[in-house]
Amino acid sequence: MAELIYFKIADKYNIIDKPNHRSAHTQVTLRGGGIIFPIAFILFSLFNFSEVIKEYWAFGLGMLAICTISFIDDVKPLSNKIRLTVQFISVVLLLYFTNTFALIPFWAWLMTFIVIVGTLNAYNFMDGINGMTGLYSLVTIGCLIYINSNIVQFTESNFIYYPALACIVFLFFNFRKKAKCFAGDVGSMGIGFWVIGLITLLIMKTQDYKYILLLSVYGIEVVLTIIERIILKENIFEAHRRHLYQLFANEKKVSHLLISFVYSFLQLAINAFLIHSDFPIWIVALMVFLPIGGLYLILKWNIKKQYNL
To answer: Quick check: 137 and 191 in contact, CB under 8 A?
Structure first.
């Protein structure tokens, strides 16, 4: 219901995404459908008010702050300084919520902060085709539900169920050949913040950093693409079409839904191995990064050679 109400508002005030030279879509589509994610947290707060006041207030402030500034940016683009300032404040609140400041040494604070901000923006970079953000997030959240229920309880169950339900609602409108809406920055940042918060809670609870690999497909793609752009002396903060999923969608004309499914299935396979693996983190990381990174480079090289990119 909330999503349908937003559609009417977006249509009235012309909150739309127009295709441009870097787009993977060809039709005007409503932007900001990902507002369902902060709405999901508001609903969680209403039904769990006492717990939110005691335990989740810092997370809530951080999420609503980053979603608000992201939604404004969807409607009217803002400067990088404003967006990064709000991201900084939101991540500090997230680290406070997860008790990270108390559980890791002082020297690791900055590195943790950089990793989280980078992961947040990776979520935004990868939100470019129908189904990607919603399905990939649903896979990760589903694995977190399994871990919380069967391996180690690291948070209240409802705190994971609400974003999962929000993903399902969003996918109903987005996982289509002709999407009814796009997530927008408010969606990618909103669900990204929630997923990162859950993973950080899990890592702090177990002190096992292998769980950062629950987002390894996104991580590998974004890091290798940034390295490529640095080598080409491009501004890494400017929009582009160099991601592998963009090449498949734009040059090879592969279905958005198929690409999103493959990325999500690949992450699901990695997560299944990760959850049940007893190897040290560095071995697990190598077993994930080497084959996936190698596959990424081979596929991208072949496409660039084929289309003279």
So the answer is: yes
* Rounded CA separation 161/167 (Å): 10
Compare 19 and 223 and report the one with higher pLDDT: 223
Q: 29 has which bridge partners? A: 17
Q: How many Cβ atoms are within 10 Å of 105's Cβ, its own excluded? A: 6
Residue-wise pLDDT for 65-113, tens only, equals 999 999 998 888 888 889 989 999 999 999 999 999 999 998 899 999 9
Q: Are 33 and 174 in contact (CB under 8 A)?
A: yes
Token duo for residue 157 = 């169950």
Tokens (6 digits) for 99: 């008790």
Q: Where are the beta strands (DSSP E) in the chain?
A: 16-17, 29-30
The token pair at 271 is 């997560």
The Cα–Cα gap between 157 and 51 comes to 12
C-alpha span between 190 and 69 (Å, rounded): 11
Contact criterion met (CB below 8 Å) for 177 and 255: yes
Q: Determine how β-strand 16-17 pairs with β-strand 29-30.
A: antiparallel
Find where tokens 């198929």 sit: 258
